[in-house]
Amino acid sequence: MRGEARRLLRDGRALAGAGMLTLAVLAAVLAPLLAGDPIAQGDIVATRFLPPLTADPHGGFHLLGTDRFGRDVWARLVYGARISLGVGALATGISVVVGMAVGAAAGYWRGWLGAALLGLTDFALALPRVVLLLLLASLWQPSAGLVIVVLGLTGWMTIARLVHAEVRALAGRPFVESAAGLGARDLRILLRHILPNALTPVIVAAALGLGNAILLEAGLSFLGLGVQPPTPSWGNLIASGRDTLINAPWVATAPGVALVLVVVAATLLGDAVRDRLDPGRV
């Protein structure tokens, strides 16, 4: 494991992905130190649509300019990172927990319970996720909590299938049979001996799923079904600047570039982890 970690650290994709994600997380965590109030409005007439690297008449400096209400785009960007990254990470966590539970139970108990869980997984996989997301998000009042739950409960199926295959392969290994022969209970065997050895595909799926969850959250917020203004998220920041791409392109460009960089970083990191941990790949 240490050797794999050292090789991962020498992988350029892993370093680039981890570096960009670290910068994004630090910006989100340190947002109160890096920027002012993201929803503060002053003299709108004097401060609206100021270009990047401009000072307003009151002496305030705006690194990325201001929007139509005179709000600082940099402040809204770093505070929006808290929402977008937090929603993506928590939704991915829910997907991992649910997927591991369903996949492990279906793989270890192969009777009616396993068949029922696999049927549920296949049924959920057959549903168009984007349509389901739009339906669920439109039924309740949009909020960050709703987006987290909806994304988490619509993204577990792939992880469940991966864990199911790993558990079935590991259940017949000698160390599992030895534990059963010593009188260990099924739940202890599953949690202590099988699941720790089935984490490789889960880690890869979580790394790749993080970028997808962040992108889906941005899409829902862009459509008005996610985080609601004035609370900033990258999706509603892009939506707020779509009508001003000609006269004030920085309003939508800044969160758009940040979103692309974070999704690319998560994908690079996921690909690097997959190549290093998957023995079937060269």
Overview of the structural elements:
By secondary structure, this protein is mainly α. The chain has helices spanning about 1-10, 10-30, 30-35, 45, 75-110, 110-125, 130-140, 145-155, 155-170, 175-180, 185-195, 200-220, 235-240, 250-275, and strands spanning about 55, 60. A two-stranded antiparallel ribbon has the order 1-2. Helix 9 runs antiparallel to helix 12 (about 200-220). It is elongated and about 80 Å long.
Please name the defining characteristics of this protein.
about 280 residues, mainly alpha, two-stranded antiparallel ribbon, about 70% helix, elongated
List the helices and strands and how they pair.
Layout: H1 2-9, H2 12-29, H3 31-34, H4 44-47, E1 54-55, E2 61-62, H5 73-108, H6 112-126, H7 129-139, H8 144-153, H9 157-171, H10 174-181, H11 186-194, H12 199-222, H13 234-241, H14 250-277
Antiparallel strand pairs: 1-2
Structural class determined from secondary elements: mainly alpha
Query: What is the string of SSEs from the N terminus onward?
Result: HHHHEEHHHHHHHHHH
Helix share bin? over 70%
Q: Distance between the terminal alpha carbons, to the nearest Å?
A: 17 Å
Which consecutive residue ranges, at least 5 long each, have pLDDT under 50? none
- Assembly level: single chain
Based on CA atoms alone, the radius of gyration comes out at: 23 Å
What is the β-strand count?
Answer: 2
Number of continuous helical runs: 14
Shape: elongated
Tell me the strand order in the biggest sheet: 1-2
The biggest sheet, with number of strands, parallel, antiparallel or mixed sense and barrel status, is: 2 strands, antiparallel
